[in-house]
Amino acid sequence: MKKIAVLTSGGDAPGMNACVRAVVRTALKSDVQVTGICRGFQGMIEGDFTPLSHLSVSNIIHRGGTFLKTARSKDFLTPEGRKVAFANLQKEGIEGVVVIGGDGSFRGAMTLNTEFGIPVIGCPGTIDNDLFGTDSTIGYDTAVNTVVQAVDKIRDTADAHNRLFFVEVMGRDAGFIALRSGIASGAETVLIPETTTYVNSLIDTLEKGWKNHKSSAIIIVAEGDESGGAYELAKSVGSKFSHWETKVTVLGHIQRGGSPSAFDRVLASGLGNKAVVELLKGETNKMVGLHHKNFVLTPFSMATKHHNKINSQLLELVNVLS
Fold first, then answer.
1. Among 97, 108, 236, 290, which residue carries the largest CB count within 10 Å?
2. Can you give the pTM of this predicted structure?
3. CATH node for 3-139+260-303
4. Which one is catalytic: 128, 141, 225, 264?
């Protein structure tokens, strides 16, 4: 290969810039030119390309978001849109693509390869950490640390006012952020989509805490929990406790922003490097992941059909330490 492209797609995640940086510098080290595709697959359709040099990716490893921008493309879901995208890749002389994103991005990459034969390799960039084939995804560690920092501050005011706080975190389909941040912040309970929420059991737990002289409580709720989220849960539970003032905080998109953690910078750099190495070897339709401290390849067909499972030991740990 003489020329490859790199894009970021789907939801942004801290560390995406570090991954792009690694892709560019690894490729240039092998005398391969790199084109950045702005705004993901939509930019591929619109021909929003920019050449990337060693200098182009200087001073970005510490930046959150993605300087290539990202988007979700409805046009790419159509055969006509994909034909335009492929024509643009041919026009630019691009022979392979590194896609940084989640399962939707990988399905798009897989379709591009199936229909037009363009080699594609993926790097898992999503704060949800729900992709099969990697122990951690780019942005997950940073998102967890962001939640923990926020909850630490919330606990200060909760304790000062005898408050019961319901803190909603991201996790529409997966509770990884909620579970790990809940343990790290000492939350009384963590509610996630993967487990059944028993409101009466939660009320019992909180009552026991009050009898044991707990002056405040923090409940971490993943947005996709079956209870309907933090506001709905606060309505059904908060009314049972007159001695606590009930409050709700939805952390929202602050979990996507901010400078990536050291772990995410190192992870993203390693994944980006490995993606280019494998692409130049002729690999395609695979995601690079970190498994037991080694970088490994997982077919897109597996990475997008299966999801990481919640660690049952961590679930038990929440119950023991609450």
1. 108
2. 0.91
3. 3.40.50.450
4. 128
